[in-house]
Design goal:
Layout (H helix, E strand, L loop, with lengths): L1 E4 L1 E6 L12 H10 L2 E6 L10 H14 L3 E4 L1 E2 L5 H7 L6 E4 L16 H6 L6 E4 L3 H13 L3 E3 L5 H12 L4 E5 L1 H5 L26 H9 L6 E2 L8 H4 L14 H10 L5 H15 L9 E11 L18 E11 L2 E5 L2 E2 L16
Parallel strand pairs: 2-3, 3-4, 5-6, 6-7, 7-8, 8-9, 9-10
Antiparallel strand pairs: 1-11, 11-12, 12-13, 13-14
Bound molecules: N-carbamoyl-L-aspartate and zinc ion (ZN).
């Protein structure tokens, strides 16, 4: 049995308010605890999106009643809310900017709309960018011009990780995260087949990339600051529909997949702790969770099964994958929150880490 600190997942789509048939603050925090994650940062592309005080309260009220692990909520950058979100910054995980089209309504197509956010959002909190390929390069240029920290979400391409590496070497304040599905899965669809074949369940943004890209992520592990799930649950019926929404669940598969990589010598346990606890805490200025740890049976070998998961979405892209390493027990702020497959803390036990100092 090994003991690790509780993991922090800086990229989770909770789906509440608005789409609680996919997930809600109760189910998502159960999934987190079962996965060894004791703190989640929630994305703002809900319905409605979280972009002002009233919508922030909507999310935080639901979280306060239902969350079983600790959390903070991101604000979304819209076309005309720069002053509003910057005044709310101390209550939020950070600011999320969607610079490429994806699932949800928060869009900033025109670069003039980026400027007020880069100028105004307090520099002690990072701006998180959903920005792929050349858009990411534009985001890094903005970080340099406005001399402020940015955090690149879900890096998936060789060209992206190489540019981030070069930007870091120049002293630009950029950090980044990578998702397990981009580390462990390769696209089965070639560029000229795209759009012809129905990808359905495999739809995700950023898309699964080529072997060359996956190899580049592994070759540049030292450039990757955080592991993040981008837990983005949609139901199987939605994924199998004619217009499948992009997104994979990930909270319950994160640690088993990473521990399997540790077992195979692809990653060290220290890398895992740095990228899943220490770095996210430092980048987002999150408090330490006292008396919080997870106990893992590092020798337990088993197959991933969606049927055993707490997420409401009912499926996983890793169904049937053989992994080594099982979360046995999670202790959160002195209380056993999960043990032997059972959630043991009530709804409302989770705390907003931006609302109070942790003791
Ligand atoms: C996310 C979702 O479903 O909210 N989907 C995804 O494929 N990652 C949106 C996002 O993070 O871009
Ligand atoms: Zn996301």
């Amino acid at each position: 049995m090994i003991k690790l600190p509780g993991l922090i997942d800086p990229h989770v789509h909770v789906r509440e308010p608005g789409q609680t048939h996919k997930e809600d603050w109760d189910s998502v925090t159960q999934a987190a605890l079962a996965g060894g994650v004791t703190m989640i940062l929630a994305m703002p592309n809900t319905k409605p999106p979280i972009f002002d005080e009233a919508t922030l309260d909507l999310a935080l009220d639901a979280a306060k009643q239902k969350a079983r692990c600790d959390y903070a909520q991101f604000l979304g950058a819209g076309p005309d809310n720069a002053d509003i979100v910057s005044s709310l910054a101390p209550k939020a995980a950070g600011l999320k900017m969607y610079l490429d089209s994806t699932f949800g309504e928060l869009r900033l197509d025109d670069m003039t709309l980026w400027i007020p956010h880069f100028q105004t959002y307090p520099k002690e909190y990072p701006i998180v960018l959903h920005s792929e390929s050349r858009t990411m390069a534009a985001g890094i240029l903005f970080a340099a011009i406005y001399d402020r920290p940015i955090h690149i979400a879900h890096v998936s391409l060789k060209e992206e990780i190489l540019l981030i590496k070069a930007a870091k070497e120049k002293g630009i304040k950029v950090t980044c995260e990578v998702c397990p599905h981009h580390l462990f899965m390769v696209s089965q669809v070639s560029d000229n087949e795209r759009g012809k074949k129905k990808e359905g369940q495999m739809e995700v943004r950023p898309r699964l990339a080529k072997q060359e890209d996956v190899d580049a992520l592994w070759a540049n592990l030292n450039v990757i600051d955080c592991f993040a799930t981008d837990h983005a649950p949609h139901t199987l019926a939605e994924k199998d529909s004619d217009n499948p929404p992009p997104g994979f669940p990930g909270l319950e598969t994160l640690l088993p997949l990473l521990l399997t990589a540790v077992d195979l010598g692809r990653l060290t346990l220290d890398d895992l702790i740095q990228k899943s606890v220490v770095n996210p805490r430092n980048i987002f200025h999150l408090p330490e969770q006292s008396e919080t740890w997870i106990e893992v049976d590092e020798n337990a070998t088993y197959e991933i099964r969606a049927a055993e998961q707490f997420s409401k979405c009912g499926w996983t892209p890793f169904e049937g994958w053989q992994v080594k390493g099982r979360v046995k027990r999670v202790v959160l702020r002195g209380k056993t929150a999960f043990e032997d497959g059972k959630i043991l803390v009530e709804q409302g036990y989770g705390r907003n880490v931006r609302a109070l100092e942790m003791e």
